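Protocol step 4 of 5: obtain the predicted structure for the target chain.
Materials: sequence only (see below). No template structures provided, no constraints applied. The aim of this step is simply to have a reference model before the mutagenesis design in step 5. Sequence pasted as it appears in the construct record:
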Amino acid sequence: MPKRRRAGLLMVGVFSCAGVAALAFCYKAGVFKGRRPAAGAQATATAEGGLDQGLRSGDAEALATLLKQLTPNPDASTPPANDEETEKSRNTLLALRAGYLKFQGPLRASVITAACRVFDRFTKEPAPARWVDALQPLHDLITAGLSDTDPNPRRTALAEIAKLWVWVPGRTLMPTEEQALAEWKGAFHPGVVRSLASRDINTRIAAVACLGALPIDEMAAPGVPYIDDENLDVRKQTLVSYARRSLLLTVDMLLTRMNDPDPSIQEVAGMVLKTRGLTQEQISLGALIFSPRPAQRVSVIPLLKDRTDLDPVIWLIQLTHDPVESVRLSAVEALAAHKTPLVERRLAEMARGDASIIVRSAAGKLLPTSDEKTAALPPLPATGALNPKAN
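Step 4 output (structure tokens):
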């Protein structure tokens, strides 16, 4: 597929032998004890024209056969789907959808995997015009997986959606096809966001990873707050999934995690900060600014004096937003050495509205203007992102 066409469809597409091993495990565990069909029924399920019927009836042998058929053969090339194979693929998806609830929990995850591998046939060029017929049955299956009471299908559905965000068929799409694909992908988003609230830790991890793979920042943003999740693995997944997305996972958030109770989180956060261009010394200073201990936050202020490798004003202004009065007061006093419009606006803002009368008085004394002129100064924009940069 031409690279240019894939790039052009990426934004539209945004809205949009594991299975065999699982089957083997279930048989060894006795999941299907007392449910295996008779030998004649097995033969019927795997015979030509009978596989779909076996899938509709929840036959594990039929599912195992389908997964084996879908396993890629590295020594053979797969031809593009023609109209006949497209109809066959659609019928298989319909059969999987009809039989979904008849399979037990672990196997329902394999049903979703099989359905997505059937759907992948349409990535081969040239994809047939009827590829759109497969959208609805696959949507129904994945949606059922997201709502499943068993965590295995939920996690599988989320992992498959992560791949589908950028999925495009092997053909140049007409506007109506682009719209259909965009709406189809967009319909998955609410279910993925809901999965973030799951009590199952692995479901939350999969939901964060799924949203982290979504290329549009606005749509991917709901996963970012899980950088503060109570679970270590969820926090780590958030760091990994959003490491390259500086507009979502900010320097402030990363520096906060440098005080994480788990050393492995600190290590990952530090690695990400270094990829953002921060030195180890800057990371150490930033970690102190976001320390949960006020004494450590105050200790940064004298360390910023006469620094040339960073802009101390940005760091000091960050500290003027500290919840502790003594930290804000120390930051105000340090700003006396920096006469810039940015500093004057922040001091004026603090002189008018800081919660502490002591801080308001200290800030007011540093203003070079009259009260009337101070009142006319425009408000300082929110400084929600600490971004220490070399001068």
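Step 4 remarks: The radius of gyration is 28 Å. Residues 1-48 have pLDDT under 50 and may be disordered.
Proceed to step 5.
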